[in-house]
Amino acid sequence: MENSSALLSTAYFAPIQYYCKLVQHQNVLIEQWENYSKQSYRNRCNIYGANGALAISVPVVKATNKKVLTKDVKVSYDTNWQKLHWKGIESAYKSSPFYEYYIDDLERFFTQKWDYLLDFNLEIQAEICEILEIENKNALSDDFIPMQTPDFIDYRNMIHPKASKGLADANFNPQAYTQVFGDKHGFIPNLSILDLIFNMGPDSSHYLETCLG
User: One Pfam family of this protein, by short name (predicted)?
Assistant: First the structure.
């Protein structure tokens, strides 16, 4: 398994399951030639707010055609979503053990602007991998890769925010850890990687290894 290749979609502050694949697989390819899929982790993440899981989404420019390639999707700045995300993350994690330790490294993602969603997500992934001290595997596909291609384990549809659309992943076994609002709502697994690093700090990379099935 560790020597196999993984095929992932791009993701905005991807869930823990996603980063487990970066640890688990020697080779990782990110699909950029697929038709963009709405309501997925490509432009959204789930954090743990005071009322439970909270989805925050990056608005994208509406395509003139029904189908647009992921690599061509542009970020929309018609609303000040960056400020809203920043305040939402602050509200969710300001009291977490490692918030002050990491938040300055992430601030630029809520002040600077990127034209393309894919470029934005890749920059985020690079920063998160540096925080986790794991290898940043972000090679992009040269062409669309059909489903059930034997050279890859295809996680593009397996890792999805809606359980009804996601596929079972026998190689991901999330373990409980202390979360800010866990006493109120219990442990919520597989949230954004932000939840893990703010709560577990330097132990985050070891946690990823414990979740491998």
Answer: WbqC
Can you give the residue ranges of every domain in the chain? 5-210
- pLDDT at residue 92 is higher than 60: yes
Phi and psi, residue 125, nearest 5°? -60, -40
The CA distance from 20 to 79, in Å, is 33
Query: Given pLDDT bands bounded at 50, 70 and 90, which one contains residue 166?
Result: low
Q: Which residue has the tokens 């432009």?
A: 43
Residue 53 buriedness (CB in 10 A; 0-12 / 13-18 / 19+):
middle
Structure tokens at 40: 């997925």
13-39 pLDDT per residue, tens: 999 999 999 999 999 999 999 999 988
